[in-house]
Amino acid sequence: MELTDVIPLKDKFVNALSGGEQQLAGIARALTQEPELLLLDEPTSHLDITHQVQILNLIRRLSNELGLTVLMIIHDLNLAGEYCDSLIMMQNGRLRKKGLPHEVLNYKDIEAVYDTVVITRTNPVSGKPVVFLVSEETFAKK
Fold first, then answer.
1. Got the DSSP string for the chain?
2. Global pTM value
3. In terms of Cα–Cα distance, which of 90, 93, 115 is closest to 104?
């Protein structure tokens, strides 16, 4: 509970917690088993950006401090690019690409998988890839 900072929530029912608090409590529960591998399915879905960053910072910290291997499914490409060491991009249930974030998150593969026009750039602070969406309206004007 200390690692995930959920001690203040210990007397609350799980259904009374916010989505972010529930995620933190779930991670705390998983850590009680002292795992070597943590499997997470969309740990940031339905969370605001504050809780998304909090959860992913925690996961990185746990991975680094405990030597924990983390495998997670995450559909937010920008969060995946910023927080993951390596990525696997799937298309129709098959492996399309795997590698470092800057190798996987390129506009050609993203457009092919998602059938959506995007622009990819590098975050000037972290050096990680960032994906920008282009609306149909904007694309039509070009």
1. -TTTT-GGGTTS-GGGS-HHHHHHHHHHHHHTT--SEEEEESTTTT--HHHHHHHHHHHHHHHHHH--EEEEE---HHHHHHH-SSEEEEETTEEEEEESHHHH--HHHHHHHH---EEEEE-TTT--EEEEE--HHHHHH-
2. 0.84
3. 90
Backbone angles phi, psi at 39, to 5 degrees: -100, 125
Cβ neighbours of residue 102 closer than 8 Å, sequence gap 6 or more: 81, 122, 128, 129
Judge whether 79 and 52 are in contact, CB under 8 Å: yes
Which pLDDT tens digit goes with each residue over 97-106?
A: 999 999 999 9
In whole angstroms, give the CA distance from residue 10 to residue 50: 21
113 near 89, Cβ under 8 Å?
yes
